[in-house]
């Protein structure tokens, strides 16, 4: 494979395990000699705990940080950054009111922390959630919004001068399931009388609308690697979730494709391959 040692990718997410939607692409980058980093805004401190032997509410953040680092190592990613905010929990919960929660961060400060990582790591591509946050989690919405602002601010020497020398990433991508896939998942659950893991969320507002998807990356060769990386997030591996109800062939089909939408930066050249996010750079 072509060595691309001068290029780098930074995947910006809210919690450990959010990165799992793009691990196939990240592994492909690693194999091509591209530097890869993962940024987490929080340590997922208020998540549920699948097995009480693994963590307590008091230790969950530290445990999930270790899980994140192990999951990254499975993919071959060595650079993991934490912004040190607290998990905000789901909308409407008491955790949303915690002043340490990511959603309650000062926007300028939050953007500045992301800018600091961008300028230090100097990524060619930035990847984060789409505007729906996948399924509307407050922290997912916040990391999308503030990563987008940081993408533009990192290149401006007049903004955040204390956070390092200006650096301009080439492209910003949003990554998510396409709405067609989400619709399939919802239909399967309904047909099998399985409660949705996202009650009250309109599936037509989740993920990426098909017409926005600019890149489709097929990663079936990494399915086992992706599974092993996911399984490192042991505190989040609940046996009776809706995802575990999926037939293996459907789950593998979903996990074999990763979708991206170019939202800012260097335009794609005409006729660019649908699986090359770096095309034309």
Structure report:
- The protein has helices at 23-31, 60-75, 107-121, 133-136, 138-153, 179-191, 223-231, 248-255, and strands spanning 8-13, 35-42, 79-85, 125-129, 171-176, 215-218, 257-265.
- By secondary structure, it is α/β, with parallel strands linked by helices.
- It has a single domain (8-265), classed as LmbE-like (Rossmann fold), CATH 3.40.50.
- The protein has a 7-stranded mixed β-sheet with strand order 3-2-1-4-5-7-6, with helices on both faces.
- Strand 1, helix 1 and strand 2 form a beta-alpha-beta unit.
- Helix 2 packs antiparallel against helix 7 and helix 3 crosses helix 5 (138-153).
- The longest helix is centred in the N-terminal third of the chain and has 16 residues, at 60-75.
- It starts with 7 loop residues before the first strand and ends in a 16-residue tail after the last strand.
């Amino acid at each position: 494979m072509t060595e691309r040692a001068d290029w780098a990718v930074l995947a910006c997410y809210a919690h450990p395990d959010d990165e799992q939607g793009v691990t196939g692409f990240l592994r492909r980058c690693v194999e091509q000699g591209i530097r890869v980093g993962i940024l987490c805004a929080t340590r997922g401190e208020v998540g549920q705990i699948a097995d009480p032997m693994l963590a307590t509410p008091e230790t969950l953040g530290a445990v999930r940080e270790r899980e994140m680092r192990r999951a990254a190592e499975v993919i071959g990613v060595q650079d993991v950054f934490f912004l040190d905010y607290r998990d905000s929990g789901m909308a409407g919960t008491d955790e949303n009111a915690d002043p340490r929660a990511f959603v309650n961060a000062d926007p300028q400060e939050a953007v500045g922390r992301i800018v600091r990582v961008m300028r230090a790591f100097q990524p060619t591509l930035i990847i984060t959630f789409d505007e729906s946050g996948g399924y509307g989690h407050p922290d997912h919405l916040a990391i999308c919004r503030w990563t987008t602002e940081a993408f533009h601010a990192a290149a401006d020497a007049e903004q955040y001068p204390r956070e390092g020398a200006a650096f301009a990433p080439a492209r910003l991508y949003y990554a998510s399931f396409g709405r067609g896939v989400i619709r399939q998942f919802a239909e399967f659950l309904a047909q099998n009388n399985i409660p949705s893991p996202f009650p009250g969320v309109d599936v037509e507002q989740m993920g990426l609308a098909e017409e926005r998807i600019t890149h489709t990356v097929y990663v079936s060769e990494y399915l086992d690697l992706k599974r092993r990386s996911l399984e490192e997030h042991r505190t989040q591996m609940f046996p009776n979730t809706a995802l575990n109800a999926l037939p293996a062939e459907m789950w593998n089909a979903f996990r074999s494709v990763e979708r991206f939408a170019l939202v800012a930066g260097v335009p794609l050249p005409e006729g660019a391959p649908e699986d090359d996010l770096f095309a034309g750079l």
